[in-house]
Amino acid sequence: MEWKGRRQSDNVEDQRGASMGGRGGGFRIPIGGGGRGGGGLSIGGIVVVLIICWVTGINPLTLLSGGDTGMDTGTSTTQQAPRTPAEDEMTGFVRTILADTEDTWNEIFQSNGARYEEPTLVLFGGQVRSACGFASSASGPFYCPGDRKVYLDTEFFKELSQRLGAGGDFAEAYVVAHEVGHHVQNLLGVLPKFNQARQNMSETEANRMSVRVELQADCFAGVWGKRTQQKGFLESGDLEEALNAAQQIGDDTLQKRSQGYVVPESFNHGTSQQRMRWFKQGFDTGDMKACDTFSGNV
């Protein structure tokens, strides 16, 4: 993927290497029995929890709390450590991909008579506070509707490549575009409706609806990918990188890798085939209207 020398977004907060101060301990994460959040996700064991949390998707704390964690907003101080050349390059990459998603969704929203509100992307290392609660790197990339920010520890890209066998710059770009897809869902009202509806759902029903939410975000990522291809920035093999990433982070593939068997009723992101199919759906059409994962079978 050609990304160097292109516009970079200013909507990035770099919190890597920051020491977090302030009042501390003044936040609450309301986790009910059998809920999906911060290690309470019942999908076949704690090992699966960590692996599933590494995949792209909504932060489990977000779905549980709906953006309201009762977190203390006391003052805090941060001190930044010097950046390495590799970190600087990764920052440039993420800023470029975010800028590309901004261009894509600004254009799409404008063509539909609406205004796109650009999200902020927070780079962090180790742990981070958001309006959706406190999260560690084990949570993986996530989007918080409460503050409309995407959170990313770029070390996840190493996990994606080395542990999951899904390396490549377009695979990494797919991760960013998927999380931005959740922001688009938030602007469209999809996430608020889901968070409200899931309060009256069983765990199995909520998981099924979560799959549809995640697959739509995959499809939106595909729409972005198509627009990027049309601009001439994709190279040979890029599409295959993204599809391989979608395959490797399917619920069934992750569960087979971690525990040797699958528990379909626990799926909350979609199978490998579903994730590949819906990313390809968005990529083939370039049309967000083709991303209706809530009607019929997925």
Describe this structure in words.
This protein is α/β, with parallel strands linked by helices and about 300 residues long. About 45% of the residues lie in helices and about 5% in strands. It is built from ten helices and six strands, in the order βαααβββββααααααα. The chain has helices spanning about 45-55, 60-65, 85-110, 155-165, 170-190, 190-195, 205-230, 240-250, 250-260, 270-285; strands at about 10-15, 120-125, 125-130, 135, 140-145, 150. The strands form two sheets. A four-stranded mixed sheet has the order 1-2-6-5, covered by helices on one side. Strand 3 and strand 4 (about 135) form a beta hairpin. Helix 5 crosses helix 8. The chain is globular. It starts with 11 loop residues before the first strand and ends in a 13-residue tail after the last helix. Mean pLDDT is about 80; it is low at about 20-80.
Topology:
Elements: E1 12-14, H1 46-54, H2 60-65, H3 85-111, E2 120-123, E3 127-130, E4 133-136, E5 142-144, E6 149-152, H4 156-163, H5 169-188, H6 190-197, H7 203-230, H8 238-248, H9 251-259, H10 272-285
Parallel strand pairs: 1-2, 2-6
Antiparallel strand pairs: 3-4, 5-6
